[in-house]
Write a structure and sequence with these properties.
Length: about 240
């Protein structure tokens, strides 16, 4: 990888990285390097202003999405998006959301720079289960559970079989591996229980960290990253 690209991964534009290098602020294995196109070897130590500047190839985050934010990287009408919850340094790494949560839906949103991983986690082909907690009108009964297990017919398609569980009074958990538009809300409405509030708790093996308040994020742990790559049938390359 080029030196300017590696430096830019620390939250700089490519132009800013080139300037920093030309100003003698970058060192490779202890030596000042002034050439932005200098080709780095994987084992090279890179410093910017004396600090480690070897940022990982990919960034993966979990965000506790609050209501009121669009799951998008930008919005033409100027509505707030989930990227507004991240600092500039991370936005510049060009992280994108894995799938979509409606504006009023809260809970686990994973953001990543790895487009292939994002694609596989939402592709029906890879069958990654998402867990939702819903507050609903009325109470789930065995008939609803059976209808979910058979596949709920919606207007344009029939959903894949899904698991539905009661979760106390006026609440349930839904386990789905599809992610069509408003799917969970539509499935529950179709069995007579419109959703009042919806929260995503889990994507495959990764659960929302209870230590994160709404609007907070953290990097995925190495274990969480590895688990996601594994269910997506990919090897992680850093
Ligand atoms: N199902 C929905 O209805 N909305 C979401 O945001 C996610 C799943």
């Amino acid at each position: 990888m080029r030196l300017d690209k590696a430096i830019a991964r620390n939250g700089l534009t490519r132009q800013m990285a080139k300037k920093a290098i030309a100003g003698g602020r970058a060192r490779v294995n202890g030596n000042v390097v002034l050439d932005p196109g200098y080709l780095l070897k994987p084992e090279d130590e890179v410093l910017l202003d004396g600090e480690n500047a070897r940022a990982p190839e990919n960034v993966h985050l979990m965000l506790h999405k609050p209501a009121g934010f669009l799951t998008a990287t930008e919005d033409a009408r100027g509505e707030r998006t989930v990227l507004d919850l991240l600092p500039e340094k991370i936005r510049m790494r060009k992280v994108g959301p894995v799938g979509r949560l409606d504006k009023d839906v809260t809970g686990l949103l994973i953001l990543t720079t790895d487009g292939q991983l994002a694609h596989r986690l939402i592709s029906p082909k890879w069958d990654v289960e998402k867990t939702y907690y819903a507050e609903i009108e009325g109470e789930i009964d065995d008939e609803c559970v059976r209808r979910f297990a058979e596949g709920v017919p919606l207007k344009e398609f029939t959903c894949k079989p899904a698991r539905l569980e009661r979760a106390g009074a006026g609440a349930c958990r839904v386990y789905v591996s599809e992610g069509k538009y408003h799917q969970v809300k539509r499935m529950l409405a179709a069995v007579g229980h419109p959703v009042l509030r919806l929260k995503r708790e889990k994507i495959g093996p990764v659960a929302l960290d209870p230590a994160l308040s709404e609007g907070e994020f953290r990097p995925l742990t190495p274990g969480e990253e590895a688990a996601l790559y594994e269910i997506a049938g990919m090897t992680k390359h850093e």
